[in-house]
Design a protein that fits this description.
4-stranded antiparallel sheet, 9-stranded mixed sheet, 28% helix, globular, alpha+beta
Length: 338
């Protein structure tokens, strides 16, 4: 087995950072998330490979919070459009957990399948290598296995790091992974080690049949009950590894400007506000219901899997105590529906 010893992790990161921008899980001040290794400050930041997960997923590496699309300018009666020629550099996401890898798989499905390819997304995705960190000890709020995620063998990973007593087994899965491994082969050691067993999940949920049952629960009283504490702050959508709602806006000055897209949230009233003033989801309950129907019914109907990966972030951070597990349990126990 090829093993990356704990003491050589920073050497590996330095080596990989010579060829690509490497994003790793860090504690930065009071925030945890995936940050570029090039910005690492030893006196301020802490690497978090040994921590189960961080609050901010690496979604922003593939789907930036703001993204320039094109510039334009008026010349007489003509409008000149200049496509934004962004330089897309190779990137590596290292230390990503299985729930977030599944999140990238869902983004791939949305932006690369069903007859349409988002060229902005594809340009970045093609140059990203995923080095996953297998999970053998699920956290108290983790329920990824219940949502069909394999915590120890993420399918879309190019390399899987498997923690052992002395470091990480370096398990190469794809050609991308082989290319990255060639850069650091001299820092890996051959050693026979024993993998840890997967410990049991403390949180479980039974999703089977939920998507079908929700078809008959659009007007169920549960939406009123569970949406009542929701503050529609949108923090769940921003920390979720699978939420991909975006808005397209324009900035102008004089006879020139640019158009860009940026993250948005279906929890915001303005998200469905129409030009004439009508809003089909005026009430918070309607926006709340749409979010969970999308997660648990609509996405499953279109792509065959729920849009929830069981990472537990929304359960942890919600200031109102909204819990997607309770919603799934309520649907399962409901007497109506399929």
């Amino acid at each position: 087995m090829k093993v990356l010893k704990f003491g050589k992790i920073e050497q590996v990161l330095d080596r990989l950072a010579q060829q690509a921008e490497v994003y790793v899980p860090m504690l930065r001040g009071q925030q945890t998330g995936f940050y570029s290794w090039n910005t690492y400050d030893e006196g301020y930041d802490d690497l978090m490979f040994d921590i189960l997960n961080v609050y901010q997923s690496p979604k922003h590496v593939i789907l930036p919070q703001t993204e320039m699309m094109y510039r334009f300018r008026q010349e007489g009666q003509d409008v000149i459009i200049d496509a934004e020629a962004q330089e897309i550099t190779p990137k590596i996401i290292m230390g990503i957990r299985s729930c977030d890898v599944r999140g990238i798989e869902h983004l791939d499905a949305v932006f690369l399948t069903k007859g349409y390819v988002d060229e902005f997304y594809k340009a970045r995705r093609d140059k990203i290598t995923i080095i996953a960190n297998a999970c053998y000890n699920p956290g108290t709020n983790c329920f990824c296995a219940s949502m069909g995620v394999n915590p120890t063998d993420p399918e879309a990973a190019d390399i899987i790091m498997r923690e052992v007593e002395v470091g990480y087994v370096w398990d190469v899965k794809t050609e991308k992974g082989q290319a990255v491994t060639k850069q650091i082969e001299d820092l890996l050691e051959e050693e026979e080690v024993e993998l840890f067993p997967l410990k049991r999940f403390l949180r479980k949920v039974d999703y089977e049949g939920v998507a079908e049952k929700l078809k008959d629960m659009f007007d169920d009283p549960m939406w009123e009950k569970y949406s009542e504490p929701c503050q529609t702050c949108g923090i769940c959508t921003y920390l979720c590894p699978t939420c991909y709602c975006f808005d397209i806006q324009v900035k102008t000055w004089g006879e020139e400007g640019y158009r860009f897209r940026c993250w948005d949230s279906c929890m915001y009233r303005e998200y469905t506000q129409m030009a004439g003033g009508h809003n089909p989801r005026e009430a918070a309950k309607e926006r709340f219901r749409n979010r969970f129907l999308h997660k648990l019914q609509f996405f499953t109907e279109r792509y065959g899997q729920p849009l929830c990966t069981g990472c537990g972030r929304c359960v942890v951070v919600c200031p109102g105590g909204v819990n997607i597990i309770k919603i799934i349990d309520t649907v399962k126990e409901a007497k109506t529906g399929a």
